[in-house]
Design a protein that fits this description.
By secondary structure, this protein is mostly helical. 68% of the residues lie in helices and 1% in strands.
Length: 986
Amino acid sequence: MLLLLAVHLAAALCAPVLVGRLGRKAFWVLALAPASAAVWALAQTSQVAAGRGPVEVVEWIPTLGIELAFRLDTLSWLMTLLVGAIGALVLVYCSAYFSVSASGLGRFGGVLVAFAGAMLGLVTADDTLLLFVFWELTTVLSYLLIGHYNDRKVARRASMQAIVITTAGGLTMLVGIILIGHAAGTHSLSATLANPPHGPAVTAGVVCLLVGAATKSALIPLHFWLPAAMAAPTPVSAYLHAAAMVKAGVYLVARFAPAYADLAVWQVIVLTLGCGTMLLGGYRALRQQDLKLVLAFGTVSQLGLLVLLVGLGTRAAALAGLALLGAHAMFKAALFLVVGVVDAATGTRDLRRLSGVGRALPVTATVAALAVASMIGLPPFAGYVAKEAALEAIAHAHVIGGPWVGTTVLAAVVVGSVLTVAYGLRLLWGAFATKASVIHAPVVDVVESGVVGGARAAARLHPVERGVPAEPATISRPSPVLLLPPLVLAVLGLLVALLPGVGQNLLEPHADAYPGEPGHLTLWAGVTPTLLLTLLVLAVGLAAFWGRRPIERLQAAVSRAPDADRVYRRMMRRLDDLAGNVTAFTQRGSLPIYLGLILVVFAAAVGLPLLATTSLPSSVRAWDQPAQAVFGAMIVAAAILAARSRRRLKAVILLGVSGYGVAALFLLHGAPDLALTQVLAETVTLVVFVLVLRRLPPYFSDRPLAASRWVRLAVGLAVGLTVGGLALVVPGARTHPPVSVDFAAEALQFGGGKNIVNVTLVDIRAWDTMGEISVLLVAATGVASLVFLRRRGAAIQRIDDDHVGARVWATDHDPMAVLRRPRDLPAPSATSTRSAEWLRAVSTLAPHRRSVIFEVATRLLFHTMIVYSVYLLFSGHNSPGGGFAAGLVTGIALAVRYLAGGRYELGEAAPVQPGLLLGLGLFMSVGVGIVGLLAGGSVMQSWIVGVYLVVVGLVLDILRTLGAELDRRSEVDDEVDDEVEDVAVR
């Protein structure tokens, strides 16, 4: 199973390259990934039926008991077969669906294959936390697929709506997973279900699981995201919203139902949501004019029925639910694909504009008829077999609450089935019938750009003349490849129904985990009450279809209840307004106020309990050696002077003195690695401060802040005393041995290094470091976004660029200019003086900004610093250093080049985009971690080079944004001011 996931990952990563080389034919190659999963599942059929399905377990995070555990049983076998087979057919369909000139196909193909892999991992995961990881992966990937047409507002809104709702449900499900896992003492799914825990906490966890399932499977009142997601391309709707993503919630209910279906709260939630969703979806489907929306609301209705069957808690209902799960995936995916064919052939999905499509496209109409026959439950199709078993199971089910509850549920299923027949026939009639009249094209015909179809180019707006009858949409013949996948699915819906006994034998192992009498799948069980109910459903559904006009008028006359989608959007607008009001109240634009509020809350929340519940130690050792007192006094003095300083630069320098004093204390305590890192970080911080201060006034204020001085003093004293108290109390409050006791031995034994600090960062606490370098990347992106408003970065400025002409840092008056060169002589070119210059781009500097001593020192030290950083990089495992310190040294070296030679010198020193280094560093960190895992080691084992690249990229990004870019803008502003002055003088 891990191999199959790796195949999907490799295919997803290669998709852009394949599409770039092969065009649409690449989808045939990509289809091999999900097809391999389906073939593998078929090969395991006999083993799964015998209860000996394959199991794979790889330790992931041993200390947390989290494993990469996968198991193939009956339920996961069925889901794997559906996910793989339908995924492969949908990818084949994509090869003809999109036009040759469609954009973003490489990204689309990669995301779709990745989604198939995530679904495969979800349905085979045997660890609940691993299941959650794949669950959220499907959420993120579905967001990208729904929003594929990102230039359309409706697609962006639909994708955002889907990810908000399903992510909220996923996080709620995570709470349930943690509660159940804590009670069970394990996160193993099979172990938990074999011996399910019980109790109030577990009941709450089960409710959380059902909330997650409801959001994923679009149950009321959160059903509205699924119809909105029809803004996605038709292949996405056919796969995600018929066969894969929405079935994840059904899978979750089916997985946990054998253990918890007997809970009263489970029965109330499942019966209420299942019946309500089934009825509401069917009712809403009857009044839709868009073919995809008819199918979308029909899918909502069918999902309610599926959740009801697999969550009812009886063997017979579970067997019927699994059969309907497979049948629904086949006929609903086929119908979505057929709608895509109709849309491609006519340029519209509005059934009021379609007429004569069945005559023009008889094969397409036949495929649709086969799929609709299965959906409404006509024999001998898979839908009929499953619904017969469902009616039989519900009629004999013992439901919590008494017989009236069971009767109500049966009545709801019958009414829902009637609605299914009605909207199924309406879909078939609306798409393919020859109608007496049609409506005019709307003012804006909303169609899917990039879809194959000759009529699409003709689907333009034309003026509507009064009294002129409307013409049906023009019909063209679509590619035969578009018909192949829905034809296969529709025929399969007929073939599997002819062998109901085989299907029963394959699906019974999961149903046997439920209590109750066994169910049966059969084409003919004689004249039974269930058969009479089926005939009644078909007859009433047919009557409802024939009487569709009065029903439509009745639906239009009946006052609508509050629309869930409108309520959601209104709530989100109110939430945005609330967030804006809270932000306006709390964020006044004053950094001192922000920091003061944070510090006051910290002092109150920590300091007051510290005074009330703890006591200071009886004896305190002031220092171990007199040198510590000297540096401590220096730190205190620098801090006081910094607080009293009115000049910004003076305060920054004094802060740096405090930082260097802390580094000296680290060194005196025998921590050279910490001291080195502190010195380097303090140096980079000083450079950043200096770059920022160039754009700020030299003084904090034009007058002393006497009014707020005492407030600032009080806050500083409170925070200082709180931190000091914590430093005295916390070490003595420990009741257990620290986790760092064994770090020295573990660093050498498992990390293979003697530098405990470095091994701790890159091996023992690798996940923490992974999060920290991710934060660095986000911080660098934030800084760049504040400066580069339109794009991530700008072109690297090199000395050879044609636009080099202006003097860098020549923004103020040069009093010595008259002594250097007459004004009428041209300045020497960069190439003519290059051999006499110590730095390559120093000739671009303004003369009064140059320092020969600084240039010579930079020329002598730069390469030495780079070599030293490489030494720190590779010696850090056993000596002071490491990737972080090495990256800081390289960053300081680049800062020296920039300060000595300006922005062009920085471009010569590092002609690479910072974003490339940041992304490459993060990718290398993860990649080396995966390689370590595949080699039998830990996930994050020895990845200091990635840390090094991230740190270098961060410093370079700061120099490019706060240094080079601000320099360029300052020069542009000065040129504009000079031009304005010249015009004013003239």
